[in-house]
């Protein structure tokens, strides 16, 4: 990995979501250049094969095209979106170790071979970046990567259940939170490391520590040799390049917990705002795509819908700009954390059509026409509309 230029470094911080307060100890040239780096946050270009769109070059922020998502229920690793807060670290699997420490009675230090010797399991789960849809919010200025709709994917992850490790480590009664730490770091030591924490109750439920993705070794950019998978939560909880799990009394006080990843209303206080945690119910039309020309008559509309722990219970389609809705056909899946494919056969007359999709989760939450704005651009689950031309 090459040493970052000043512009690359500032772009890195902007995409990482490090705000001005956290930059107080960073050199003056960095603070002066921050605005310029953020100004380029919306640049994008297609990568090889047009399956991915480059939103940021350093570190790699790659968004999957809707056409690529449409190809399969399981997103291939080479088509899966990539999001990192800092450059991908160099990790040697032969010497890598996972430490489980903090408020535990039996601290653990495990190699990859140790983990693979334990009972393994696989789960199919959606991962969605919390900022997916940030570029579609009507905001004058939002730091962070300007994702549109493709910072999401569905994969089968294989590894060991975190609960199995916790039972061996025996957390103390007062330990209520698990802090996840990865090997990645910013080029300057003064920039805070990326740390996320989850409740112990979540860790004892369905969290996986994975070394495989869709039956193949976990790719480096997706967190090899080991990453966390936290089903039903936004992707930032699924820490990549995992090296340490600490059991603690309280949630992490890291910048990315206390001030970052919060639903902050314009003018609000990040420290008093709700945290970004569980996925919001959402759906996405992958076929046809925006601006497509389709024949008059029967048109198949398809895509995917997902939600948090409540799962998806219903998907509806509209072909008249939301004036009326009809149920779409939903695929069956035994994977509660996976997305569900939907399809609908519509009869469209010549002219133009505004196709819309909305999903409902198991607790009755329905996708809004427009999600509430927050200054970080998180959790945009606004209804997806696709405009098509209907002809001969």
Explained architecture:
This protein is 12% helix and 32% strand. By secondary structure, the chain is mainly beta. It has two domains: 6-272, Oxidoreductase, molybdopterin-binding domain (Sulfite Oxidase, Chain A, domain 2, Alpha-Beta Complex), CATH 3.90.420; 282-391, Immunoglobulin-like. Helix 1 (6-16) crosses helix 2. The longest helix has 12 residues, at 28-39. The radius of gyration is 21 Å and the shape is globular. The termini are far apart.
Number of domains: 2
The rounded Rg comes to 21 Å
Q: In CATH's first tier, which class of the largest domain applies?
A: Alpha Beta
Average per-residue pLDDT, rounded, comes to 90
Individual helix count: 7
Helix content: 10-25%
Report the portion of residues in β strands: 25-35%
Uncertain residue segments: 19-42
Order of helices and strands: HHEEEHEEHEEHEEHEEEEHEEEEEEEEE
Query: How would the global form be characterised?
Result: globular
Quaternary? single chain
Kindly report the name of the CATH homologous superfamily of the largest domain.
Answer: Oxidoreductase, molybdopterin-binding domain
CATH topology of the largest domain: Sulfite Oxidase, Chain A, domain 2
Largest sheet descriptor: 5 strands, mixed
CATH architecture heading of the largest domain: Alpha-Beta Complex
Which structural class do the helices and strands define?
A: mainly beta
- Order the strands across the largest sheet as they lie in space: 5-4-13-8-9
* Distance N to C terminus: 52 Å
Number of strands: 22
């Amino acid at each position: 990995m090459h040493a970052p230029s000043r512009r690359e470094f500032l772009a890195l911080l902007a995409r990482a979501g490090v705000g001005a307060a956290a930059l107080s100890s960073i050199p003056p040239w960095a603070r002066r250049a921050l605005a310029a780096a953020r100004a380029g946050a919306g640049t994008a270009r297609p990568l090889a094969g047009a399956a991915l769109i480059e939103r940021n070059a350093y570190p790699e922020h790659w968004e999957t095209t809707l056409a690529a998502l449409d190809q399969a229920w399981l997103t291939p690793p080479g088509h899966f979106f990539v999001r990192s807060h800092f450059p991908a670290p160099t990790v040697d699997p032969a010497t890598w170790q996972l430490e489980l420490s903090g408020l535990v009675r039996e601290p653990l230090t495990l190699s990859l071979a140790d983990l693979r010797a334990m009972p393994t399991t696989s789960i199919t789960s959606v991962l969605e970046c919390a900022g997916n849809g940030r570029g579609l919010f009507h905001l004058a200025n939002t730091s962070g990567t300007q994702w549109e709709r493709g910072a999401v994917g569905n994969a089968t992850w294989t590894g060991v259940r975190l609960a199995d490790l916790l039972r061996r480590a025996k957390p103390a009664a007062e330990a209520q939170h698990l802090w996840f730490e990865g090997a990645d770091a910013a080029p300057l030591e003064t920039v805070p490391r990326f740390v996320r924490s989850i409740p112990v109750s979540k860790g004892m439920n369905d969290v996986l520590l994975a070394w495989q993705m869709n039956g193949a070794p976990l790719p480096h950019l997706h967190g090899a040799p080991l990453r966390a998978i936290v089903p039903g939560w936004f992707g930032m909880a699924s820490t990549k390049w995992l090296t340490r799990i600490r059991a603690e009394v309280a949630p992490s006080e890291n910048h990315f917990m206390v001030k970052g990843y919060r639903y902050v209303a314009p003018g609000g206080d990040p420290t008093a705002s709700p945290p970004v945690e569980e996925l919001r119910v959402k759906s996405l039309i992958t076929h046809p795509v925006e601006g497509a020309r389709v024949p008059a008559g029967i048109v198949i509309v398809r895509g995917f819908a997902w939600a948090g722990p409540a799962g998806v219970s219903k998907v509806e389609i509209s072909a008249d700009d939301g004036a009326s809705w009809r149920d779409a056909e939903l695929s069956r899946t035994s994977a509660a954390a996976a997305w569900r494919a939907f399809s609908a056969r519509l009869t469209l007359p010549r002219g133009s059509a505004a196709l819309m999709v909305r999903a409902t989760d198991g607790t009755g939450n329905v996708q809004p026409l427009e999600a509430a704005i927050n200054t970080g651009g998180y959790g945009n689950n606004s209804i997806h509309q696709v405009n098509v031309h209907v002809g001969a």
